[in-house]
Amino acid sequence: MPIYKLNDNYIFPDPKFSEPDGLLAIGGDLSKDRLIEAYRQGIFPWYSEGQPILWWSPDPRMVLFPKDFIKHKNLRKTINSNKFVVSFDQMFEQVIEQCSSIPRLGQDGDTWITDDMKNAYISLNKSGIAHSVEVTYEDKLVGGLYGLSIGKCFFGESMFHKVNDASKVALWHLVDKLTDWKFDIIDVQQETDHLKSMGAIAIERKEFLHLLHISVNKESIIGNWNTA
To answer: Is the overall model pTM greater than 0.85, yes or no?
Structure first.
């Protein structure tokens, strides 16, 4: 099946037309309106420097329902120790920079978080749509994550840690906040053992898109989350 090439209109093909690996379309741009429209439809950009923008909607889809987050005993001890300081939306640019530069298994120094991607998500953060969770230890940023919030769905994009458990602490605090705000779902996109161990599961794309449609049409919490 040919891959759909995007034009200037913010229109995406139905995700059911994705390739078996999830690739749906190429081209377009990373403008705020296009990105929001993509996420609302269960589509996200993921590509390497030098490639055209590639748009994906994998099947199955990895998700974490906040109520199913597993609060492991050892991690609870870390949380209760108060060794880390956690904040929201205070160091978004530093978090996305660390997520792009931290060495990862199998990437050979490459990153999908290109400069254009960074700038696009920084713009979304300034618009109150993209958010970060920062974990500091002795006044140094040692872990965190970032993603988008639309309706009552949080779209997790990337996380990093420089100290053991720092990214897990970030996720713990994110889940607590989303639970308080009655969020329905955290989209974590693709399966990893790390996320599976914390309660994430793979569901069929058809089911994900049904849940997503309900969730993104609820009221969004826009603005700086550190003061919300």
So the answer is: yes
